[in-house]
Amino acid sequence: MLQSKSFVKKTKQGRVIKVVREHYLRDDIYCGALSCNVCDTSAARLSSSASTILIVDTNVVLNQIDLLENPAIDDVVVLSVVLEEVRNKNLAVYNRVKALCTNSLRKFFVFSNEHHRDTYVKEMVGESPNDRNDRAIRVAARWYQSHLGGSTQVLLVTNDKENKRKAIEEGLSAETVESYVKSLGQPNLLDLVALPTSEDVGLAEVEDLRPSKRKVIYSEHKPMSEITSGLLRGIYHQGKLRINRYNPFEAYVGSESIGDEIVVHGRANMNRAFDGDIVAVELLPQDQWHEEKSSIIADDEDDEEEDVRLVPSSADDAPRNTNLVQPAAASTASTSSRPAGRVVGIIKRNWHSYCGSLEPMPMPAGNGGIAHALFVSKDRRIPKIRIQTRQLGNLLDKRIVVAVDSWDCLSRYPSGHYVRTIGEIGDRDTESEVLLIENDINSRPFSAQVLACLPPLPWTLSSEDLANPKREDLRNVRVFSVDPPGCKDIDDALHCTSLPNDIADVTNFVLPGTPLDDEASQRGTSVYLVERRIDMLPKPLTEDICSLCSDVERLAFSVVWEMTPEAEIIYTRYTKSVIKSCAALSYVEAQARMDDSRLMDPLTTDLRNLNSLAKVMRHRRIERGALTLASAEVKFQIDTETHDPLDIGMYQIREANQMIEEFMLAANVSVAEKILKHFPLCSLLRRHPTPTKEMLEPLLRTAAAVGLDLDVSSSKALADSLDHAVDDDPYFNKLIRILATRCMTQAVYFCSGDLSPSEYHHYGLAAALYTHFTSPIRRYADVIVHRLLAAALGIAKLPPIFMDGPQLTSIADNLNYRHRNAQMASRASVELHTLIYFRKRPTDTEARIVKIKSNGFIVFIPKFGIEGPVYLMPRGEKGGDWVVDEVHQRVMRTGTNIGYGILQTVRIHMEVVEPQPNRPKLELTLI
């Protein structure tokens, strides 16, 4: 059956055209119930013994996904009209419900009501799309009720008052989410129910959760119509809110409309915005743009002290922390050039699930075991969340996951609901899972569909691989790899006769559009924690089929250079190849070979020749202006049985590391040039934007205070200045380089068609073009680049996705997001294992001051690669003000000669303490 709908449409050029849309209707779409006597049940997903089948509306799926994912909820029909609406409103929830509908262990069935002859409904004159969809849901529920007869109850679950009323009037069974869950007789399941909003039924329950003092605490958010108008007129400015990780009362909104970051001081001015929300900001008067230079160190214990007042209208009403010493310089400080503002509306929420623990609140008498509690996230940027629970006693010593439902302007805290328990607080595995959830890292096992894409093991080269005319046989070439100790995912190898740089040919196995490819594109990158690695691809690929192990034949993608002894590239070619590595060396082993003058074997000679070339390449790169920066990388020695840290120290960089780095950089640059030449609009490249003057200001201030004159006019000028930043102290130069690293922008992936060539530049490497090609086992960006290179060489066709600009941009955005999250997860893992290590090892050691604050300073501990705050005053102590001297970067005690300066060495005591329940931290105190 064919339904046609025609309408007229005006094009951008002003022409009026007639559009005819055809909608095909069928009568052979099955209901999915095993108990059905009419439909084909071969593809049925609803259980034969189901006494009740649930039909859920769009808002139930959007708001109650945590409940739906619980195994107690099954035999659910998800209508196609609901699925489509969910996809348009929240892609993350859509992916979660799709996973439920494809999970063979769950009884969820997608019914195509929009294409069934008996359930399709036309839009009525004057009917809104929302009302039409609600009517379609009721029609489908009525069809199920008639289709299944009286053998199975069909229950429409909705929190929409009007939809429920109409359903009951039409003879349908309808219940709210809460009443249905109560009927299941599992009280703890009620904890998963998201609180209804004021538009839904059950408003009284929301009122119970709000504070008894019904004062207006926050400003009402402006309606979207007013926000849109204000953005157009330049009254408001749009951007993503980023909350300071070390001071949750300070946030920044990057605004393209004013070309600068807007500073938002205090929770009142944040006005219920969460980190990552897209917000509309109103600038405050310029005399309220407060200086930030002498800001304080905010403490974990200060969260409760920072209160909000009644409807703040300016920064003067922003919260102040009375228990922390305010900088004396603040009263005389000039206004800052950085604009300050306040949030007036939320354009797009970034709410998701959060990990933490509960603070118990007094249990109300006679309330059916329901306790109200405040949830404290491990992420300090997240405010406390008010939840209700029936299992308070079981949750107080647990790490749990909580989701946010709403945040009323009358409530100091947002309201949310319990999602699940992770494990015991303090347990290493529990805390490791917490950091993965916090950083949105997918650590789930690979699905059967993904694993089905892999070739069977044991895998060996086939005769077809060897006979392939597009693949060069390099098995007779002396190839070897140099990687970190214990590395199993070896994806690059070198050879020094004609000098190919061989990279694992991952795309031979990861084909576009397959479940394996989809999974890799979502994960984006492998994640390296202290005690384990979370792979982007399944282990059979990473540690066997694609790993360039010694003495086994492997498929590779090679960049072959012909070089002079002065490391000048005369000729470059690219080829798919077959190799057989003769050695898989660690950095330590490679370095030991190069350093041992007694060794003159061919492999060691190759290593020395490569190292000689690498030194020339490195020198030439630095001459061009490439920066040699430094980072505080920490290395743990882990107990193989308990996985607890046995020792901790700074990661040591050897010549062997630098040698491999040079050839990886050279290969990435060569490939970037090749793919961009062939595909100027759809190449995936990597850029490093030049840091702004404001970003470099902390470095310049520190340098000036210690008598250095750094030239930051270009990367070359900065590199030269850093080379001359020397002192009697051997660690001085590394400290300056670490501080310089922190002023840099983040390097990002981008699609070449999205930017002009002048914006492709990589500042840190002083390279006009750069991409990632050398690690396809652990980075999806490299997989994309391998496909581009193969297409440029005529080896394979370019997948259709490269013709879709917006989709390529979306892939690049996801890669940047995943790369950033992987970095944050790695750092959090280091912090966790640092806590575990020092829990039983209080230590005195030397530290260097790297940042001055009005109530203390931030120190860096070279021996352990750790950074943290040192407070000059105990909490709650009165008097004894400290004054920050911005010019000389010192903090001085008023009326005394006691003071501390930037980069000064101080002796500190390190000890793990727990000032708040379940929130241990490494405390650094001045000796």
UniProtKB/TrEMBL annotation:
Q: Which residues form the PIN domain?
A: 52-165
For this record, an example GO cellular component is: cytoplasmic exosome (RNase complex)
**Biased composition range(s): Acidic residues:** 298-307
The protein's organism comes out as Cocos nucifera
Specify the RNB domain's residue ranges.
471-795
Q: What is this protein called?
A: Exosome complex exonuclease RRP44
Instruction: Please list where the region (Disordered) is annotated.
Output: 295-336
* Cross-referenced PANTHER family: EXOSOME COMPLEX EXONUCLEASE RRP44, RIBONUCLEASE
Cofactor list = Mg(2+)
Compartments reported by the entry: Nucleus
Keywords for the protein's UniProt record, in alphabetical order: Exonuclease, Exosome, Hydrolase, Magnesium, Nuclease, Nucleus, RNA-binding, rRNA processing
In Gene Ontology terms, what is a biological process of this protein? nuclear mRNA surveillance of mRNA 3'-end processing
- SUPFAM superfamilies found in the cross-reference section: Nucleic acid-binding proteins (SSF50249), PIN domain-like (SSF88723)
Molecular function, one GO term: 3'-5'-RNA exonuclease activity
Can you tell me which family this protein belongs to? Belongs to the RNR ribonuclease family.
Major subcellular site: nucleus
